[in-house]
Structure formats: C-alpha cells, structure tokens
Write a structure and sequence with these properties.
With about 325 residues, this protein is α/β, with parallel strands linked by helices. The chain contains 13 helices and 9 strands.
Length: about 325
C-alpha cells in the first residue's frame, strides 16, 4: 500500500487571513489522521503574505497536541536561518512530549526573499556556502548525543527526533545518502531532477545509526476532485501563483478559483504555464492515481507526500480523501 503524507504551507487566500489559515491547518491535520495519512509536515516561509507557515516548531507542537497517531514534522526547517543547537533543542523537546511522532526535516533554502534572508541570517551562514553541510552534521550530532559531548541538546539524550534532509537536486540526494539520512525530494519544485536525485541517494547511501536502508519520499503538487474538469477549476489559482512567481510579482494572498478564472493569458503565456504545471497531479481519482503510481515506479520513492493548494478547506479535504481511497483501492487490486 502506498504510504501517503501531507505537506502544508498554511496558504493564505485573498478572502481570508493568516489566522484562519493556521486554524485550517490544525483541522486538516486532524482530518488527515482520520483518513490514515502517515505524516503531516509544515513548511518554513518568511515575509510571504500568501503563506502563514513561518514557525514550524510552533505548528508541529500544536498539530501533535491536536492529534494522537499521525507523525508531525517540518518540511522543513530552513537550517541556515537558525543555530543547529536551537533546532535540535526545539525538536527534541517536541519528541520528548510526543514520543515516536515527530520528524525534523531540514533544508538549505532561505524560504524567503534575500532581504528577509539577510535579516534571518544574523546567526548563520549565507546560502550557497559549504557551511550548510557542516550545519547538518552538527544538527545530526546534537540529535544523536554521545557520552562526552561538550555541548548537549538536553532533551535529545533520551528523545531523538529523526532528521530528514530535504532537497531538489542530485547533490542533495547524494549528501543525504552519505549521511545515512532519510531523504525528502521536492518534486513540486524541480520535477526534472527526481529520478536522478533519488538514484544518487540510493547509490550513495551508507547505513547509519539513524537508518539501515535508504528511505525516500517525494513531495508533489496534487489536486483530486470528482471530475477532471472540477480538479482543473480548483487548480486555477496554482496557475496564477506560477505566473506571478515567474514575473516576480507574487506579493499578495493567493487568488480564489473565481478570481483566477477571470485572468486572461496570451497564447504564449498559456504555453509557458502549461509547461510549468505539467508535473502537477491534477484530475479525477483515476487520472491522478495512474500518474502517482507511475511517478512512484519511475523514481522508486517509498512514500508520496502531497501539497494541495485548494482554496476551500472542505474541497482540500475532499482531495485528500479521494486520493487516499483511490490509492488504497489500487493497492487492494495489486494485492
């Protein structure tokens, strides 16, 4: 059976607010647990009026407290923004309070614009430097303390959250393998690198105290509805988001489907947007099921993590439910 998980950015919509987005994240996590999803991760973004997820440790604490089984984690903490010791202390504290249910996913990106990145990086290293590798090694050490260590993330002495490396490149996959960490590949960012990055991860993998065999998930943009037409309607805001990102004008909350439908594209713009969103898994259950199964087969990923940018929360939850049911049915046929 396909292992299914969720990545949530707590999207903010033009008819809503960050506070409402955060409340919807909590409700969605509870519903995802009921549907049988394995983990629920939240992202780190800053100075982005379209995303309310800027403090992963706080959100992970709230999600874990509001649920009882599903794993709660970060997808991820942008490590160059923070001292590794502080991150280790925060997530070891969460693991101590919710044993066996907390994941610490870390990434390299600043998760924001460069002006804000400079404000965040007062205690850390600039993007693109080799210091990131040292920060990851330092973090792993704090989360797996040994007798005699000079500095200890105290809760980690008996509560050790698993560290995941996030990335969208072959280099990140190889680095995760060298460290013997689980790897989360961002297919929604760089789909063209998926097969090569996961292959590099498996080839470079060295068993570690954290992991005996390679384990990778792949995160994808997914929208499922009762019909292909309805799914495409719900995905309308995603096209606007992509267009604004390409133009560097994304500085407002996400549009609703109705607002997105009023946007008119030139034929050239339409072609670019179709190419840029071709990797999104959008459609009726059978449509998405076939594409998801093919993607997992092509990449060899062990787990599918879905990011669903849908305006209405009930429609978003419906997408999660339809996906879970259709992949469960597919697993039943295969069994």
């Amino acid at each position: 059976m396909t292992v299914l998980s969720i990545l949530d950015t707590a999207p903010v919509w033009r008819d809503s607010s960050p506070a409402r987005a955060l409340r919807e994240t909590l409700r969605a996590a509870q519903e995802a647990e009921r549907m049988g999803y394995h983990r629920y991760w939240v992202a780190e973004h800053h100075n982005a009026p379209f995303i309310a997820s800027c403090a992963p440790p706080v959100l992970v604490a709230l999600i874990a407290a509001a649920t009882s089984r599903i794993r709660a984690g970060s997808g991820g903490v942008m490590l160059p923004n923070h001292p590794p010791l502080v991150v280790a202390e925060q997530f070891a504290t969460l693991e101590a309070l919710h044993p066996g249910r907390v994941d610490l996913g870390v990434g390299r990106s600043p998760g924001t614009d460069m002006a804000t990145a400079r404000a965040l990086r007062r205690v850390s290293s600039p993007p693109g430097s080799d210091a990131f590798r040292e920060q990851v090694r330092e973090l792993v050490g704090y989360c797996s303390p040994r007798e005699g260590d000079e500095i200890v993330a105290v809760p980690a002495t008996d509560a050790r959250p698993p560290v995941w490396l996030l990335g969208s490149s072959v280099d990140n996959g190889r680095f995760a393998g060298e460290l013997g960490l689980p790897f989360a590949f961002a297919h929604h960012i760089r789909p063209e690198n998926a097969v090569d990055a996961l292959r590099a991860y498996r080839e470079a993998f060295r068993p570690s105290a954290a992991l005996a065999e390679p384990y990778a998930l792949i995160s994808c943009a997914v929208i499922v509805a009762d019909t292909d037409e309805r799914a495409r309607w719900l995905a309308g805001p995603s096209k606007v988001v992509v267009a604004e990102s390409l133009k560097g004008t994304r500085n407002a909350p996400n549009p609703t489907p109705e607002q997105a439908a009023r946007v008119r594209w030139t034929s050239a713009e339409e072609s670019v947007l179709e190419a840029r969103t071709a990797h999104h898994l959008v459609g009726a259950p059978d449509t998405v099921r076939d594409r998801a199964v093919r993607l997992l087969d092509d990449t060899g990923a062990d787990e599918l993590m879905v990011m669903t940018l849908v305006h209405d929360l009930d429609e978003r939850l419906r997408s999660y439910e339809l996906l879970a049911k259709t992949l469960e049915a597919e697993a039943g046929k295969a069994g």
